[in-house]
Amino acid sequence: MSQPAASQALAPSPPRHVAIIMDGNGRWAKARGLPRNLGHRQGIDTVRDIVRACRTLRIEYLTLYAFSSENWKRPETEVAGLMDLLRLFIRRELDDLWRNGVCIRMIGDRTKLAPDIVQLIADSEAKTRDNRTLTLTIALSYGGQDEIVTAARRIAEQVAAGKLQPSEITAQVLENNLETAGIPDPDLVIRTSGEQRLSNFLLWQTAYSELIFIDKLWPDFSAQDLADAVIEFQRRERRYGASE
Ligand code: FPP
């Protein structure tokens, strides 16, 4: 059997987990004189394209920041519009996602969501739970600080109940109590629209993630832009704090 070419043997693998802060829908709409919700609507089409592209690029986990805990402060009509789009997305795409091996998960505070959305999410999670091609996690009513506080509270309850010693609390214990338990940390975080911050997204999990900020607004972000970000990721050398 012939040896693979050196370039092939050393070909870096794609990021296993990509997390995306989908930003810029409002600016996209404003630039066209349209209401903000039409920007979000256009953003849904990008979501569909990017989910497909992840399968092509052999990305195993995709996490999308759809609605932050702070987004509840937006005008009521915008919040209602975003929730309608989420309903639309799940109803329209669920069968296709299921057939294509996508496992759907949701992280975030479900207590603030309308009961029909909670039900829709629970049904999607149940229907797709055995799928393994791609895990699509939707962060909805999500805040990274809240997630860590909730994990700390759960651990404190275990200590108070005598099930855990304070000396047994490790990073692993904290991770096991996060909503993302069982999902590897993101290798790559992408934020569109040119803003350069994490905005309370996966604060614990992104400790060693590569960050790529892209100037395009989310509705303009394409499968090719994702492929380019993956190439940029593969060029970077990840050392996890080691010197060489
Ligand atoms: C940020 O743009 C985007 C959001 C707050 C919502 C993103 C949601 C979607 C694309 C639709 C729902 C998602 C799924 C997964 C079905 P912005 O409004 O902050 O834009 P701006 O910064 O230009 O004002």
From TrEMBL:
Comment on bound cofactor: Binds 2 magnesium ions per subunit.
Enzyme class: transferase
Short name of any one Pfam family annotated for the protein: Prenyltransf
Keyword Transport: no
Binding site for substrate: 24-28, 36, 40, 68-70, 72, 74, 191, 197-199
CDD domains, A to Z: Cis_IPPS
Residue numbers annotated as active site: D23, N71 (proton acceptor)
Keywords: Magnesium, Metal-binding, Transferase
A cellular-component GO term for this protein: cytosol
Subunit annotation: Homodimer.
Family to which the UniProt record says this protein belongs: Belongs to the UPP synthase family.
Protein name: Isoprenyl transferase
Source organism: Ferrovibrio terrae
